[in-house]
Amino acid sequence: MSTDEQTSKDARLHRLEQASEWLLKMDNPDRTEEDVNDWLRWCDEDSENLVAFEAFQKDWRDLDALKVGAEAEESAPAPSGINDDLKRRTPRLSILRVRRRKLMVPVAVAACLALVAVTIILLSHEREHSIPGQHVAATQTNRAATLPDGSRVILSTQTSINVDFNGAKRNLELSTGEAYFKVRHDRQHPFIVYAGDISVTAVGTAFDVRREPDGVTVTVEEGTVEIAGNVFAKNGLPTTWRAEAGYRLTYSSHGRTAMIASVDTSNALAWRSGELAYVWEPLGAVIEDLNRYSEHKVIIKDPAIADLRFTGTVFTASLNDWVKAVEQAYPVRADSMANGDIVLVDRR
């Protein structure tokens, strides 16, 4: 890459970073009128600044389709002094029109921007396109990120992926955990997620992949995906399955078999907003899942407890309340340990 090309890429990257900072600042309830005036001056400095800013606003509206933070957006109170008509307006507005007409005071402009419940969108910088095996991970909280091609991913806690978009295919490897993908349409460059023994191929769709010790679960929210398993037919080709929107494929690594069933995706993918929904799941599996979200672990002392069945929704931010509810609903006692862990003991 020439020096001029690198300089141009660095300038675009710097502008995107500034746009993201301004979007977050405009959403801050402690912003001042001076902040808004500074933002308007920044927009006037270069026409590309406004383009970048509006692109970030569009990114958030697209992320709303991922159902992350939808509850926050619906419940966020509008700033005081804004009339009902203004509340109903789209969050994007026409910022360019506001700047040209100068009829709306800067505070009102910021108030309209605040109607968007902004979260931090972790960008994959353009210069990372040339780095094979780019690593993206989430630790104790879910993480939303934009991939180099503009696709978006939400990683569940304790999840990591490796990304390689250098070739003709967009390759990702899900090392651990669960990830939701909103794929940008590009028929010439298939989007492939590798998880254990299977690969999931999509062109432009939305789906979820969860990797577990004994297999992989793929849930399709939009479009269709093709899943290839580590099972070879007589012709030497791998066995493939297709799953459409509203269906979930569960692949067993042990048996090398797959089962497809319809599923309520709103419940199955509720983890993106901090809710984990279960239907007749073994309590042991539920607790194993929940332990990924908590610094302190829940430990089952008696194997019989692990076999108890659980149906319900757990909020990851209220695990202690859930443990108390388990004590009331099941014949178990929760004992707290000195390190903060909780041991479930059979009290029958």
Mean pLDDT: 75
Total count of helical runs of at least 4 residues? 11
What is the rounded Rg? 24 Å
Flag low-confidence runs: 61-132
The amount of helix comes to: 25-40%
Instruction: Write down the overall geometry.
Output: globular
Distance between the termini: 70 Å
What would the CATH topology of the largest domain be? Jelly Rolls
Note the main sheet.
14 strands, mixed
Known CATH architecture of the largest domain: Sandwich
Series of secondary-structure elements, N-terminal to C-terminal: HHHHHHHEEEEEEEEEEEEEEHEHEHEHEE
Number of strands: 19
Q: Domains counted in the coordinates: how many?
A: 3
- Broad structural category: alpha+beta
Fraction in beta strands: 25-35%
Q: How are the SSEs ordered, and which strands pair?
A:
Layout: H1 3-27, H2 33-45, H3 47-64, H4 70-75, H5 84-87, H6 95-101, H7 106-113, E1 122-123, E2 134-138, E3 143-146, E4 152-155, E5 159-164, E6 170-182, E7 191-195, E8 198-202, E9 206-212, E10 215-222, E11 224-232, E12 238-244, E13 247-252, E14 257-262, H8 265-268, E15 275-282, H9 283-290, E16 298-300, H10 303-306, E17 309-315, H11 319-329, E18 332-336, E19 342-346
Parallel strand pairs: 1-3, 6-7, 16-19
Antiparallel strand pairs: 2-5, 3-4, 4-6, 5-6, 6-9, 7-8, 8-11, 9-10, 10-13, 11-12, 13-14, 15-17, 18-19
Detailed description of the structure:
The protein is of the alpha+beta class. It has three domains: 3-113, no CATH class; 122-267, Jelly Rolls; 274-346, 3-Layer(bab) Sandwich (Phage tail protein beta-alpha-beta fold). It is built from eleven helices and 19 strands. Helix 1 packs across helix 3, helix 2 packs across helix 3 and helix 2 packs across helix 7. It starts with a helix and ends with a strand.
